[in-house]
């Protein structure tokens, strides 16, 4: 149970995401230590964390960003201005010229995609490096929704579909097969990648290990990560890239919400001014149970409540928690680890407003970076 928070959140509007720069810097220093020890480059996967007000800070430590779309590429280009990489399962033809304008590395999901764009990219005056995503058909994930190697996966080229004759102009290979995993999984994965694709890697300039590396988690085994990076760099002379999203923002932010009402139906249920469906969709999708500061598991403390959102979705439930004191309307709850895969995924289902976004550092204290309103809801509809 996390007991307290050393930021005074009483002045914040609710709901509100707040990112603590001190914690973000701690993560960035850990990631930078990997770069310094191995010479690899680490990119922020914007898919997981696109809080661009901190991109200048992130850019002090990391080599740049990776993107899943034109918009993410543009955001990284404009707000960080370092290396921009992009990978998408398929590119939209009308967008490709603009994608080339922002990107330093473009990774294709298939040889069809590479063949479709290769004449265009060869005539470009900009120096862009091109890669192919491979599917080593090895992963240690149980949920197909997060497993790029499940049967019939559309993500990456498998060995039987790999076309060595089509590699002219390709300088790198990319694999992404992990999710929230430690480096023992990586060590087993790179063995398979090497066995299957080593003969092609030796002609490449770079190898991208994708994301899913939980590098900033306390029990992460850094030595095995360093060994894995060095293994490929030494064996094939390639530069290694990592592109974590979650590990950059892991445990760096909170979502502050307020109790609106308490209802009873064979148990006590608190209705909050936030919503799992709108503001923390991974709670339902993943699913998982976020920690709340000062709260425990059901019955661990005297007062147990089910926490639900204020949308009409019956399943808009965050989970069951116990508290030392009874909850009452107006009480504030602080959900932990809410910086990644939240702001980037939130929505205005039911016309629910988006949480405000705030930033904390020691020098400036709390700053509210952005608040949303009716216009944001209206602008996305017609
Ligand atoms: C999702 C994704 C990432 C980032 O994954 P995390 O789990 O947030 O580290 C990186 N690369 C690709 C290709 C991805 O799809």
TrEMBL record:
<dbReference type="GO" id="GO:0045312">
    <property type="term" value="P:nor-spermidine biosynthetic process"/>
</dbReference>
<keyword id="KW-0663">Pyridoxal phosphate</keyword>
<dbReference type="Pfam" id="PF00278">
    <property type="entry name" value="Orn_DAP_Arg_deC"/>
</dbReference>
<dbReference type="GO" id="GO:0008295">
    <property type="term" value="P:spermidine biosynthetic process"/>
</dbReference>
<dbReference type="InterPro" id="IPR022643">
    <property type="entry name" value="De-COase2_C"/>
</dbReference>
<feature type="binding site">
    <location>
        <position position="282"/>
    </location>
    <ligand>
        <name>substrate</name>
    </ligand>
</feature>
<dbReference type="InterPro" id="IPR009006">
    <property type="entry name" value="Ala_racemase/Decarboxylase_C"/>
</dbReference>
<dbReference type="InterPro" id="IPR005730">
    <property type="entry name" value="Nsp_de-COase"/>
</dbReference>
<protein>
    <submittedName>
        <fullName>Carboxynorspermidine decarboxylase</fullName>
    </submittedName>
</protein>
<feature type="binding site">
    <location>
        <position position="246"/>
    </location>
    <ligand>
        <name>substrate</name>
    </ligand>
</feature>
<dbReference type="GO" id="GO:0009089">
    <property type="term" value="P:lysine biosynthetic process via diaminopimelate"/>
</dbReference>
<keyword id="KW-0210">Decarboxylase</keyword>
<dbReference type="InterPro" id="IPR029066">
    <property type="entry name" value="PLP-binding_barrel"/>
</dbReference>
<feature type="domain" description="Orn/DAP/Arg decarboxylase 2 C-terminal">
    <location>
        <begin position="83"/>
        <end position="338"/>
    </location>
</feature>
<keyword id="KW-0456">Lyase</keyword>
<dbReference type="GO" id="GO:0008836">
    <property type="term" value="F:diaminopimelate decarboxylase activity"/>
</dbReference>
<keyword id="KW-0745">Spermidine biosynthesis</keyword>
């Amino acid at each position: 149970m996390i007991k307290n928070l050393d930021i005074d959140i009483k002045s914040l509007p609710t709901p509100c995401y707040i990112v603590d720069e001190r914690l973000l810097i701690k993560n960035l220093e850990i990631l930078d230590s990997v770069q310094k020890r191995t010479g690899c480059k680490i990119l922020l996967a914007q898919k997981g964390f696109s809080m661009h007000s901190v991109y200048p800070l992130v850019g002090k430590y990391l080599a740049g960003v990776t993107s899943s779309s034109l918009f993410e590429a543009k955001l990284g280009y404009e707000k960080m201005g370092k290396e921009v990489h992009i990978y998408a399962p398929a590119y939209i033809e009308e967008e490709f010229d603009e994608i080339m304008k922002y990107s330093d590395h473009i990774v294709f999901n298939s040889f069809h995609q590479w063949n479709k764009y290769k004449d265009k990219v060869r005539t470009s005056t900009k120096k862009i490096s091109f890669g192919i995503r491979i599917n080593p058909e090895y992963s240690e994930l149980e949920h197909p929704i997060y497993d790029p190697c499940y049967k019939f996966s559309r993500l990456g080229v498998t060995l039987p579909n790999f076309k060595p004759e089509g590699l002219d102009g390709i300088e790198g290979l990319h694999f992404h097969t992990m999710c929230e995993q430690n480096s023992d999984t990586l060590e087993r994965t790179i063995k398979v990648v090497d066995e299957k694709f080593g003969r092609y890697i030796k002609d490449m300039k770079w190898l991208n290990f994708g994301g899913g590396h939980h590098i900033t988690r306390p029990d992460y085994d850094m030595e095995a990560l360093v060994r894995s990076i060095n293994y490929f760099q030494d064996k094939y002379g390639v530069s290694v890239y990592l592109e974590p999203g979650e590990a950059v923002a892991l445990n760096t932010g909170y979502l502050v919400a307020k109790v609106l009402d308490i209802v009873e139906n064979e148990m006590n249920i608190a209705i909050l001014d936030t919503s799992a469906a709108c503001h923390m969709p991974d709670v339902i999708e993943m699913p998982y149970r976020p920690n709340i500061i000062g709260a425990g598991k059901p019955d661990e403390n005297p007062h147990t409540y089910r926490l639900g959102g204020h949308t009409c979705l019956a399943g808009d439930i965050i989970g069951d928690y116990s508290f030392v004191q009874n909850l009452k309307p107006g009480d504030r709850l602080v959900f932990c680890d809410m910086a990644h895969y939240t702001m980037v995924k939130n929505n205005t289902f039911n016309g629910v407003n988006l949480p405000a976004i705030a930033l904390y550092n020691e020098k400036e204290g709390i700053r509210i970076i952005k608040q949303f309103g009716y216009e944001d809801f209206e602008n996305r509809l017609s």
